[in-house]
Amino acid sequence: MSEQPWRCGNCAVLNGPKEPYCNMCGAARGAAGAESAGTSAEPAGINLSKIDCSECGAPLNIAESVGRGQVVCESCNSVIDLGSPDYAILHRRMSDAHPPRSNIRVGQTGVFGDVRCRVVGRLAYVDAEGWRWDEWFMVAADGSIRYLEDDGEELVLLEPVTPKAPPPITELQSSTTITIDERKYPVEERSTAKIVYFEGQLPWKV
After folding, report:
1. 13 and 33 Cβ atoms separated by less than 8 Å
2. pLDDT above 80 (res 37)
3. Radius of gyration of the chain (CA)
4. C-beta atoms surrounding 44 within 10 Å
5. Long-range contact list for 150-158, CB < 8 A, 24+ apart?
6. How far apart (Å, rounded) are the C-alpha atoms in residues 42 and 116?
7. Second label for 190, Cα 20 to 30 Å away, from 19, 51, 144, 170?
């Protein structure tokens, strides 16, 4: 058996070189569409480094511009602290997977406008009413950070901003308008949600 990690052709999860079955969906290695990891060229400008999982030794791609948050090893579900000098294991991710609501997968690249981005992580949310959506975390070739919100019906591209004078949280009410740095923004909705699943690399710890 090859000592190279392999990517599942069914769900696109990266698995360790000694794993005969996909850790996410259970598909057998060598099934139609399965491929060796790292066979596609990385877009210019997106710098990646490689580390080995502290638990199982599987190789992990790390986007250098994201920051020192955490990364999940898809081979053993270990959550690794990227801010730790020895890449300490924080905990193990819950095994009950929440499949993506679209065909987007961690590791894919795409062009938004004229900027090429790489998908590096995903958060799955559910609110009090049971509404679910995904938030894909992306890094662009110019080093900027983007978020792609996916509710299964439409995709919304988001870019983080740091206002000079953030408005009080009490002003963020549904169907109102707020002013940030002399510019008006509509507040479409305000609700409470929780993270029920995560994968890939994130700039903070979950």
Report:
1. no
2. no
3. 18
4. 8
5. 150/100, 150/101, 150/102, 150/104, 151/101, 152/101, 152/102, 155/102, 157/112
6. 11
7. 144
- Within 10 angstroms of residue 21's Cβ, the number of other Cβ atoms is 13
Q: Which residues, 6+ apart, have CB-to-CB distance to 17 below 8 Å?
A: 1, 2, 3, 4, 5, 6, 58
Q: Are 93 and 74 in contact (CB under 8 A)?
A: no
User: Could you tell me which of 62, 43, 67 has the C-alpha nearest to residue 142?
Assistant: 43
C-alpha span between 73 and 51 (Å, rounded): 11
Q: Model confidence over 69-118: pLDDT tens digits?
A: 999 998 888 999 998 889 999 988 876 778 888 888 898 888 877 788 88
Mean pLDDT of the chain: 81
Identify the CA nearest to 7 among candidates 98, 51, 30. Answer: 30
Give yes or no for a contact between 201 and 62, defined as CB atoms under 8 angstroms apart: yes
